[in-house]
Amino acid sequence: MNRLELTGLTARPAQVWGGIRLVPLVRERPVEGLRLHREVYTGYGTGMVEVGPRTHYTSYIPHGFVADWAGEGANTAAYGTQLAAQGGSGSQSTPPRTLTLPRHRHHRLAKRQPGNRLRFLPLHLAMEGYLALHFGGPSTAWEEWSRQALRDGLSPRAEDAYLGWSVRGLGDALRAFEIHPGQCGVMVYTADALAAAFVVPHPDDYRLLHPTLVQDLYGELVHQYAMYGAPVADFGARIPDGPHMRTLADLRAAAREQEREWGETHDTLFARELLDISYAFDRVYRMGSFTLWRFLPPFLRNRDGQHIGETITDHKGQVAYLKTFRLSEAQIRRGHLLQRLAEADWLLPRAAVALGTTPEELVRRIRAAGFESLLRDRGSR
């Protein structure tokens, strides 16, 4: 498994609101044996996750998803969301004009719950995988690397993202359009650049999780395209008149042919950057016949539109759940740089040869990528 395949999902005609294009994804049959529901966290949404010894992931985490592979049970999405109590009930005095945001503490990004259920933090599972990319730093104490780099690696490491409600037009688009019968997902575009893909196993799950798209994380490029991009063209079926168009059945068949052509165009043109690329998959948890994965792109410098994400697949590899995050150009460059450094065992001359540049230029690129703390101060040599 190294590619994403949206087998069983059909793209319906696009819904356009200004610069936002929503492409509904419809299943003919729901994925059997898996349901998703939301676990809402009280407070201000800031959360801290223990991902390892002395290692924490901190972000805005308003909710988690719970995967239930026990079948139709009392805890499925059809019964709505659940509120989770916030850890700690003690109060703390604060100085005037100081705002303290309570943090919900989580143990692991994906944690088994009683019964056949798994709680995981959507998108944060994928984002932490990107932040952990070669997190340990230099594996050999080459003289170019600082003591901090050898001791702490890339800790701390941070990336910026925007909440969905700050992406211009997204909230209005999600409210304006009706949800299709059988809809189990959506592809979100800003200025016709793929911003995110979201897929769930059952239409009832989608109806209840559809509003969470405005609470998701989106990349810098997505925010910029939505803010400054021009309105995109709406989908319009064009059926030529002629002697063959005599009955309503003829008109209905022609309209369906237009829908089929749109679906093929979407999969081969609009969604190509997501589907026509190989990923590195990391298995997170096995849930009966289903498996939760997170994935990273190859960080190709000559290719735009690369995504990180997470997915749940069945034993045939069919996608039951999918959520993606579009990386910015700077994030792709950082991932590419870290991959090349690790492949060269963090030896700068070797990495420079692999990148087709000089060690001096590579040092400049490392500093420009925000990894200056990894480099040894020349004055201390």
Describe this structure in words.
The structure is a single chain. This protein has 381 residues and is of the alpha+beta class. Helices cover 25% and strands 27% of the residues. The chain contains ten helices and 19 strands. It has helices at residues 124-131, 147-152, 170-176, 203-209, 220-228, 248-270, 272-275, 329-343, 348-355, 359-368, and strands at residues 9-11, 15-17, 20-27, 35-41, 46-52, 55-60, 63-68, 82-84, 104-107, 110-113, 117-120, 162-163, 183-190, 193-199, 217-218, 280-287, 290-296, 307-313, 319-326. The strands form four sheets. Strands 1, 2, 3, 13, 14, 16, 17, 18 and 19 form a nine-stranded antiparallel sheet that branches. Helix 8 (329-343) crosses helix 9. The radius of gyration is 23 Å and the shape is globular. The N and C termini lie far apart (47 Å). The model is unreliable at 72-81 and 83-101 (pLDDT under 50).
Task: Give the gist of this structure.
This protein has helices at residues 124-131, 147-152, 170-176, 203-209, 220-228, 248-270, 272-275, 329-343, 348-355, 359-368, and strands at residues 9-11, 15-17, 20-27, 35-41, 46-52, 55-60, 63-68, 82-84, 104-107, 110-113, 117-120, 162-163, 183-190, 193-199, 217-218, 280-287, 290-296, 307-313, 319-326.
